Amino acid sequence: QHVNLTKIMSAFSSRNGRVAGQLMCDSSSDCQADEYDMAMFIEGIARVCNEDTNFIEHVGDKITDICFLACRHQVKLESSFISAALAIEIIEGVAKSLHRDIPVATPALRFIVQAELMHKLPKMSLW
């Protein structure tokens, strides 16, 4: 489960929405989506990733879009992905309330890279 979460977060961080969407569909248990809905979900995730904003820096907006797409296309999201995304959002909120110039994205990306190395996954272009 940790390996798949690392792959998904890496794909989002490198703006590879098609890979992220496909991984999310592949890891979805008890998925109610048919092939058309899965394809539309993946396409929607690709659009979310192609926006001009960084996933990690705007995770709150992105998670809202992802949850909407999952609901609309009946793709069940893994709880570990939702938990990780919400944890990033909470950390960002706390950091910004302490000082609005505290960087959150760069340290978060370091954790993703460390997880990739730990699992011996091919590096994605995060920087």
What does this 3D model show about the protein?
The protein is mainly alpha-helical. Helix content is 68%, strand content 0%. α1 runs antiparallel to α2. The longest helix has 20 residues, at 79-98. The radius of gyration is 14 Å and the shape is globular. It starts with a helix and ends in a 9-residue tail after the last helix. 31% of the residues are buried. The mean pLDDT is 81.
Task: Output the keywords.
127 residues, globular, 68% helix, mainly alpha, single chain
Entry summary:
By secondary structure, the chain is mainly alpha-helical. It is built from six helices and no strands.
Radius of gyration: 14 Å
- Straight-line distance between termini: 25 Å
- Helix fraction? 55-70%
Number of helices: 6
Shape: globular
Number of strands: 0
Rounded average pLDDT: 81
The string of secondary-structure elements, in order, is HHHHHH
- For the report, how would you describe the main beta sheet? none
Question: Uncertain runs with pLDDT below 50, 5 residues or more?
Answer: none
Taken as a percent bin, the fraction of beta residues is under 5%
Class inferred from helices and paired strands: mainly alpha
